[in-house]
Amino acid sequence: MPKQIATSEKHWYAIHTYSGYEESVAKNLEQRIDSLGMQDKIFRVLVPKEKKIKIKGGKRYTVEDKIYPGYVLVEMIVTDDSWYVVRNTPRVTGFIGSGTTPTPVSEDEIQILMGRMGVEEPKYKIEFKIGDHVKITDGPFKDFDGKVAEIDEKRGKVKVLVTMFGRETPVEMDFLQVKKI
């Protein structure tokens, strides 16, 4: 008696994994697909990631962050066999869905996700505007307060007016080095 409602349509499904093991689950699953000959039912395995900019020690780094930690996406046709292969991959705790029936991820969500993942240059998200009071969190002016004078979104830089020795001095900072007060 089949447990899964077999449809011949392929959809994306989210599987829950042990956090931190997303990459190894994806690799394991791809090996299982090959060794068990499931390429006709399980098509793609994806760990959704996006590039972000971080600053550490005054240096700028581009890092890849998982968009959904603890989850891996699988494009597949759900049958008892394909469900069993995915579900019994080491460190997979289950499909997202009710009971044992996986719920497909909507096409819209997949398109948005693919868009986020496909961005080559990480975007700068500047959360303040000219005139806002900010605190400098990194660099030689750490712990100084100031006022935003200019914002250069393309370069991810802000010019902050810092009061030193009784006069305002403009200091150019990376936007990640300041936070709104």
In short:
By secondary structure, this protein is an alpha+beta fold. It folds into 2 domains: 11-118, NusG, N-terminal domain (Alpha-Beta Plaits), CATH 3.30.70; 133-180, SH3 type barrels (Roll), CATH 2.30.30.
Mean pLDDT: 88
- Judging by the overall fold, what is the CATH architecture of the largest domain? 2-Layer Sandwich
Structural class: alpha+beta
Largest sheet: 5 strands, antiparallel
Measured distance between first and last alpha carbons: 62 Å
Shape: elongated
What does this 3D model show about the protein?
By secondary structure, this protein is an alpha+beta fold. It has two domains: about 10-120, NusG, N-terminal domain (Alpha-Beta Plaits); about 135-180, SH3 type barrels (Roll), CATH 2.30.30.30. It has helices spanning about 20-35, 80-85, 105-120; strands spanning about 10-15, 40-45, 50-55, 60-65, 70-75, 90-95, 95-100, 100, 105, 135, 145-150, 155-165, 165-175, 180. The longest helix has 14 residues, at about 20-35. The relative contact order is 0.17.
Secondary structure layout:
Layout lengths: L10 E7 L4 H14 L6 E5 L2 E8 L2 E8 L4 E6 L3 H8 L4 E4 L1 E2 L2 E2 L1 E2 L1 H12 L14 E4 L8 E8 L4 E8 L2 E8 L3 E3 L1
Antiparallel strand pairs: 1-5, 1-6, 1-9, 2-5, 3-4, 7-8, 10-11, 10-14, 11-12, 12-13
Tags for this model:
SH3 type barrels; 5-stranded antiparallel β-sheet; Alpha-Beta Plaits; elongated; 14 strands; alpha+beta; 181 residues; 2 domains
